[in-house]
Records
---
Amino acid sequence: VGAMVVLAQADTTLLAEAFGAAEDFEVSPDEYYDYQYSRPRIVRSATGESRIVWPTTRMLRASVPGTNLDLILLHGWEPSYRWSSFAAEILEHATQLEVDFVVMVGALLADVPHTRPIAITPHANDPSLVTRDSPWRGELRIPSSAQSLLEQAFEGRHEAVQHIKVEDGKGQAL
C-alpha cells in the first residue's frame, strides 16, 4: 500500500526526517526547467566545498512504522515547460510504486497579511473524502499549475485529494 503526498519543501523535509525517507526517483532537470528562470544554486559548506543544487522534482520513500503503508513524498520546483510529459512521468513512477492514495497540498501566491485567517478549499474526485464544505460555489476559473495537471493525471487512476489555500488580495477568504 502506498500513499503519495505532494508537499512544499519544508513539509517534505520534516516528514522525510521523521520517517527516515530516502530518495527513490528524480526527474531530469534538463527536460523540464529553464535555468534562467529557475536558477541552479551553489551551496558552499563551512569547509569551502561547493556543489550545485539543480532545480528538480524528487520522490522520497519511507515506511510508516507499525503499518503496511509506504509514504511517497513528492516535492520540487514547478517545471518551466513540458507539463504534460512531467505529469505523465510522475504518474508512471507512482504507478510502478503501486501508489493507491494521493494527497496534494498547494497554495496560491497572494499579497495578503500573515495576520489574516487562512482559507482552505478542499476538493476530491470522491466527495466522501471531503469532510467539510468548500467556500467555493459554482464554477471556478483560476490559473493552472503543474500540480493541477498532476491531479488530472491521477484522476480515475487513484483516489486524489487536493487542498489549496485561496485568498483574495485583501486577505479575505473567498
Note: The first helix runs from residue 9 to 19.
---
Amino acid sequence: GVPSSLTLSAQVADTGGNVSSSDDLVVSLTPDNLPPEIAGTHPANGGIVGELDAFEVFFLEALDPASVTPAAFSLTHLGGDGVLGSGDDVPVAILGASYDAGRRAARVILNSPVSAGYFAATTSAPLADARGNVMAATSTFRFHVLGLPDGDGDGLPDAMEASVGGDPSNPDTD
C-alpha cells in the first residue's frame, strides 16, 4: 500500500572525517482526496475564435485516461440571445474525447465545425484524476465563435490576420 508517513534524516561529513547526523523528522502524508481542477481552456473563458471543431480543457494534475469520454463534456450553442438556459439553446454533438498526458489536456472533438455564435462548454463527472477522485462539480466556460475561416488554427480569422500584417497560414506570425 501507500505509506502514511516518511522518515527523513541528514548526515554530513567534513574533510577531517567528522560525521554528524540530524534527528529523524517524520513527515505525515495526506492522501489525495481532491477532485481534478481545471487550469485553463481553449478557447479561453470569455474568448473569441474564428472557427471551432474541437475544444480543450487543461488540468492541474494527471487524469485517469479512461474517464476522458464524451459523457464528461458538453457543448451548447446559446441561441440567438446568447444566454444559457433561456430556451433557445441547442446542444452540439460531440464525436469523441482524448487525453494528452504530457499536456494534461482533454481534447473534445465535435461532429462538425460549429456555426457562429455564443457557446458554453461544460466538464463534469465521470471525469476523474489518476487516483480515482471524480470531478465534484460541473465547470462551465463560455466563448464566442465568429464563424470565419482560420486556416492556421491560431484563433485569429484569416481575413483579420491579413489586415494586421500576419500570415494566415502560419500561427507564429500573429
Note: Helices lie at 158-163.
---
Amino acid sequence: ENLPEGYIETLDALPELQRQRMLLGQWCGGEGQIFKDFNIAIHTCEPFKLPMSWSRFRAIDFGYQHPFAFVCAAYDWVTDTIYIYHEFKKSGITIDEAADEINEQQRLTNDIFERTWSDHSASDRASLQKKGIYTTLAKKSVADGINSIAQRLKINPKTGKPRLIIFNNCDNVI
C-alpha cells in the first residue's frame, strides 16, 4: 500500500535475473554470469567421504601474479557425475611451492589421480614433474569447456540431479 502506483508491474517487467532479485528477493547469479543454470541449492553439496571406486583427477592452472589454482574431482561412473571436492587458489607462490601444496593435499587424502591436466607451460610442467606430478596438456578451447560444463549443470532426467556437483567448501569454484 505504500508503493508508488505501477511499481510492482515495473519490477515484474524487468529482465528475468533482475526480476528475481528485485521483485522476488532471490539471491541469484549476476549479470554476465557464464553458467546461468548454476544454482547453489542444486549444484552444491556437503562434503562426504568419496567412494574409493570413483576415479580421481585434477586440473592445474599456472599463475604467479594471477593466482595459481588447482581443483580435484571425482567421477561417479554409475550416475555419470563429476564431484569437485577440493580447491586451492593463491597468488604469489612459486611453482615449487605450488607443487608442495598439491603433494600435501594428495598426502592428506591418499588419493590416486588417474590424470592431471595442466596449462601448456613447458617449464612449469617440468618443475611439477621433478616433484612427482605428471601432467597432461589441457585442451584450451574455451568454448568447448564452457559447453561441457553447461551440459553437466543441466538436470539429468534419469537421476533428477545435475552431472556436476561441487562440495560447498569450494568457495572459489562456486
Note: The chain has six helices and nine strands.
